[in-house]
Amino acid sequence: MALKLSLPSQSSFPSLGLQRSRPGSARFFMTATLPPKSKEIDSLRKHLSPREVHVQVTHSMPPEKIEIFKSLEDWAEHHILVHLKAVEKSWQPQDFLPDPSSEGFLDEVRELRKRAEEIPDDYFVCLVGDMITEEALPTYQTMLNTLDGVRDETGASPTSWAVWTRAWTAEENRHGDLLNKYLYLSGRVDMRQIEKTIQYLIGSGMDPRTENSPYLGFIYTSFQERATFVSHGNTARHAKDYGDMKLAQICGIIAADERRHETAYTKIVEKLFEIDPDGTVLAFADMMKKKISMPAHLMYDGQDDNLFEHFSSVAQRLGVYTAKDYTDILEFLVNRWNVEKLTGLSGEGQKAQDFVCGLAPRFRRLEERAQSRAKQATTVPFSWIFNREVLL
Ligand SMILES: [Fe+2]
Ligand SMILES: [Fe+2]
């Protein structure tokens, strides 16, 4: 199996250094004096290029395995496309928002804003982070179309895989749209800063380290759809606690979509386990070793170099998405795919099986230890809420 290695393009850098800003991540910075125009390009690249330094592996799936996905076309037609919802039966953002063409529009907006007044800032930080994550949808469609054997080759390809990806994108598009419009009307957040963050994030892309392999790609999406199901479910629960039933409904309806998408993606991986248990368990172990990076891990607002970490800390403290959720999702997937009961694996496959099955208990022990350590009370300003301070 030949691995092609490629690094982020460095041709425009006369000199490149690495500056460690926190454990596990590093940033590029310039060490040479540049003419003014290059400085501009450098500043663009600084915030729009992959910030984590690791070798980017491409096309790691042996080419002959592409045939597996071609042979699954029919199966996907009958077992995966059924998890899509017809447009005529789908909810639309407008169903949950004040109708601008109605007489009562302004009153409805006033009511929405009144309800939003009861909700604390830290909740809004979580909701904004979730909305920004949803709004970077172009990146996720691109990511799916990097996958060998399932990509949409023309932009309107009739294969089941391509139909799924386009319809999935179209369904997802309503999520960011609904949250964005809600947040705009709420009057609680700095929309311009949020819009800047979205522009930066889409420009940065993401690197989930799926290596153009649909094995890795669909394990990643299975994990991510469940993660978004959990976090939107939690923001719904919190909204209910604050007495905002309409916002709870908004978050809940999005969570339900994520759940349906999770069902489809986990079904694909279940099928891969059936056809190629060895290859699939190796892919699962590989993905977990690399850790599932969150889709918005490169977020930046033009101000805070650790914006994603800060947003994640608030989500953790509020119980919107926590380290425990990460472990729960891993454990859920191990059970969903019956990984413990796989038989007939190669030596390497067995090692991968042991690794994956032993991971959740290991994470739980680490969590316990982390919890017993006293946490310092730190606050940071979030530009999304006019630089008001929020406890991490
Ligand atoms: Fe979504
Ligand atoms: Fe999703």
UniProtKB/TrEMBL annotation:
From the UniProt record, which GO molecular function terms apply? metal ion binding; stearoyl-[ACP] desaturase activity
* One GO CC term on file: chloroplast
**InterPro entries named in the record:** FADS-2_CS (IPR005803), Fatty_acid_desaturase-2 (IPR005067), Ferritin-like_SF (IPR009078), RNR-like (IPR012348)
* EC id: 1.14.19.-
Its recorded name reads Acyl-[acyl-carrier-protein] desaturase
Domain of life (superkingdom): Eukaryota
In which residues is Fe cation 1 bound?
Answer: E134, E172, H175, E258
The positions annotated for binding Fe cation 2 are E172, E225, E258, H261
Q: GO biological process: what's one of them?
A: fatty acid biosynthetic process
The coenzyme or cofactor needed here is: Fe cation; Fe(2+)
Provide the family line.
Belongs to the fatty acid desaturase type 2 family.
Repressor listed as a keyword: no
Give the Low complexity compositional bias ranges: 1-19
Q: Where is this region: Disordered?
A: 1-21
Function statement: Introduction of a cis double bond between carbons of the acyl chain.
User: What Pfam families does this protein map onto?
Assistant: FA_desaturase_2
Q: Does the keyword Transit peptide apply?
A: yes
* Subunit description: Homodimer.
Enumerate the subcellular locations listed in this protein's record, separating them with semicolons. Answer: Plastid, Chloroplast
Organism of this sequence: Amborella trichopoda
Q: Which UniProt keywords apply?
A: Chloroplast, Fatty acid biosynthesis, Fatty acid metabolism, Iron, Lipid biosynthesis, Lipid metabolism, Metal-binding, Oxidoreductase, Plastid, Transit peptide
| SUPFAM superfamilies reported in the protein's UniProt record | Ferritin-like
As to how many cofactors bind and how, the note says: Binds 2 iron ions per subunit. Binds 2 Fe(2+) ions per subunit.
